[in-house]
Amino acid sequence: MAAQPRFRDRALLLAGPALLTIVIFMVLPMAIALVYSFMTASPYGGVEKPYTAGAYVRFVYDRDLDDSLVFDTTYLQIFARSLILAALTSLGCLLIGLPMAWYVATRRPVQRQILVLLVTIPFWTNLLIRTYCWVLLLRDQGLVNNVLLWLGLTKAPITFLYSDGAVLLGLIYSSLPFMVLPIYGALEKMDPRLVEAAYDLYADRWAIMRKLVWPLAKPGVAAGNLLVFVPALGAFLQPDILGGGKKLMIGSLIQQQFTTGRNWAFGAALSMILMAFVLGAMMWSAWRRAAIAVPV
Description:
By secondary structure, the chain is mostly helical. Helix content is 71%, strand content 3%. The protein has one domain (84-291): MetI-like fold (Orthogonal Bundle), CATH 1.10.3720. Helix 1 crosses helix 12 (264-293), helix 3 crosses helix 9 and helix 11 packs antiparallel against helix 12 (264-293).
C-alpha cells in the first residue's frame, strides 16, 4: 500500500517538466489571449479596459453610419474559405500521400531509408524560402509559363498567382510530408505475406488497396489529417505570398489584426473562435472513433 503513493509521487515528478512546459507555452498564452479578447483595443496597439464582448460581436456584425449593428458576412466568408481550403488540402495530401507512403513501405530497407530522407528534405529549408520559390515558378514570366509557351500549349502567360488555386498548391506542398510519414509509419508494420496471400486468392490491386491496405492505413490517415488540417486552417504565409493578400484565410486575418490592424482584441477573439472550432472538431472526431470502437 505504501508503494503506491511513492509510485504516484515519482510519476508526477517525472511528468513535472512536461506539465510545466505545457502550462507555460500553451495554457498561459491561451489564457492571455482569452483575456485580451474581452478587452478594448487600444488605438496604438495593445488592449485596455473596459472589458467588453465587442470583439466577438464584430465577427458577425458591423457598425452602420448611425452606430446600429448590421449583420456582416465578411469574416464568415473568410472563415468558410479557410475551412474549404484546409479540407481540400487534407484531401489532396491524402490522394498523393497514400500511394506514396504505400510505395515507400513496400521497398527494401535501404531504399526505404533513402525515400524517407527525400520526403523529409523539405524540412531542411525554411518554409518562407520554399513558398517564395513557388512565386518564381508560377509568376507570368516563371518556369511554368515559359514551358507552356515553349510547348505551344498557350499563346500568352497564364496568371497562376494570387488565386485560391495557388494558395491550395502551396498548402498541399508544405503539408504533404505530414501526411506521408504517419501513413508510412502505419503501413511499415504490415506483413508483406498478407499481400502475397491476397494475390494467391486472386485479389486484384484495387481489392488489395481497398480491403487490406486502407484498413491498415486508417490510423496513419487519421493522424495525417489532423497534422495537415489544423495547421492549414490557421496558415497565413501561403495566403499572403501566393494569394497576394487578396485571398485571406483566418490565419492571415489574425496576423493582420496583431500587426497592421493594431486590433489585438479582435485578433485574440478570432484566435479563440478558431481554437474553439478546432477543439470541437477534434472532440467530435474522438467521439466518432470511440463510438465505432465500441462493440455492438
